[in-house]
Amino acid sequence: KILILDFGSQYTQLIARAVREANVYCEIIPYHKSFEFEPGLKGIILSGSPFSVNDENAPDVDIQAFIQKVPVLGVCYGAQLTAKKFGGKVEKSNKREYGRAYIQRTKEDVLFEGMSANSQVWMSHADSIKELPAGFELLAVTESIPVAAFKKISSQETLYAVQFHPEVYHSIEGKKLIRNFLVDICGCAQDWTPAHFITDTVEALKKQIGNKKVIMALSGGVDSTVAATLIHKAIGDNLYGIFVDNGVLRKGEFEQVLKTYKDNLHLNVKGIDAKSKFYGELAGKTDPEEKRKVIGRLFIEVFQEEATKITGIEMLGQGTIYPDVIESISVHGPSVTIKSHHNVGGLPEKMHMGLVEPLRYLFKDEVRRVGRELGIPDELLDRHPFPGPGLAIRILGEITEEKVKLLQEADHRYISGLKEHNLYKTVWQAGAILLPVKSVGVMGDERTYEYTVALRAVTSVDGMTADWAHLPYDFLAHISSDIINNVRGINRVVYDISSKPPATIEWE
Ligand code: XMP
């Protein structure tokens, strides 16, 4: 395995994903956390950072101690820290270097194996390395900086450093460089594959769980489905899945997903129709955060009630993934809560049970790869994200069963249309929103006074930032008439052209 020491860069997770993409397992830990040099540890990568190495409290690690045990690669701040600690000079640049640059190699090295002569890389730094320490050699420069890559001259220790960010998309051959470091320099076997992961995880789950019974909430989402399938592979029907119809799912979703769980994946899962309970308590609630709280609380109630019906439940399964658990270095202080995202995160504290989290160390794309290997149908794996509170936060204002039906129908036509026109996979998330606005229209000779639906579709990588999807006008025209002609109660369709920030993806 590879350890990535995080100095707080926004790109640290990208380093981890690039390493995993090379089929090598890695973990991210805060730079100041101690760790063991276990036999499986093959190398260390030092991340970038918003700090300057010349700051008073600049993050620091004992690189000399590391390289006595394993090869080290410093990236950006990691490179500057290396230069400074071994006696080189790092100073503020006259001009900050951001964006595209082309490296010119000054010496051939295995680190660059297979890369083109003027490889495009991505820079993002305010300080520059002005002088290399004694005992180091220069490997590459760019037009604007004298040190873009270097290494320690030594037959015993291996220490590489690059000023650019090989982990980002715009460093075109960055993945090759990372692969060279992992495989040729650290000697990693590229055996972190979905098939291996499944075999190892199923073995580990058998040991962890033994004969105990596990209960788990299923949502139809990618993470809970893949996690449940893995646990089921390990313990069979000792896994008790619970799938709750909270009344704010998509049209037909409850029945379809339940059928896939049972018929395709052979899971032991119970569907609970709790619609009326949810509608009852949502009645009269208009505040988005209040709606979220009600749904979160009711969900836990329903789930707990089901749990007490099964004797001898001792463990709780969850689809937690790696980005939820990485300890991050907080440089800007605690972040502000914009929306309180409901998921089943409230469950473990309430239930006092042992946790089973087979996806705890996977990134989202790896969860999908594992899911494919497990034979989970594409329509489940490629689903857009769908919020826990479902359509409740897409019906602005008060929720009624009638409004849910209206929105379900409009949403269904929109999403099916995206699929039919091969647009579904080109957007990151899409959905319809029912506005609390009625407007006048005319149909035939009749005047109508009905609701407005807004369509939303965004492109994004992680949901943190997003742009509105530039869907073809022809498609929008088609969906607009499809909805207005077929969904009674809606006489106007608008398209949301706001990016995030400053808007959010959901309207509530
Ligand atoms: P926003 O609206 O914050 O959404 O731009 C970002 C992503 O989070 C989802 N989202 C939620 N997911 N519970 C969830 O499980 C919530 O309360 C919630 N609110 C927003 C949203 O669908 C998008 O994918």
From TrEMBL:
Q: Which residues form the GMPS ATP-PPase domain?
A: 192-383
Under the heading InterPro entries, the entry gives: Class_I_gatase-like, GATASE, GMP_synth_C, GMP_synth_GATase, GMP_synthase, GMPS_ATP_PPase_dom, NAD/GMP_synthase, Rossmann-like_a/b/a_fold
**Which positions does UniProt annotate for ATP binding?**
219-225
Query: Which residues of this protein are catalytic?
Result: 76 (nucleophile), 165, 167
- Mind telling me which Pfam families this protein's record contains? GATase (PF00117), GMP_synt_C (PF00958), NAD_synthase (PF02540)
Subunit? Homodimer.
Q: Which PANTHER family match?
A: GMP SYNTHASE [GLUTAMINE-HYDROLYZING], GMP SYNTHASE-RELATED
UniProt protein name: GMP synthase [glutamine-hydrolyzing]
Q: Whose protein is this, by species?
A: Flavihumibacter stibioxidans
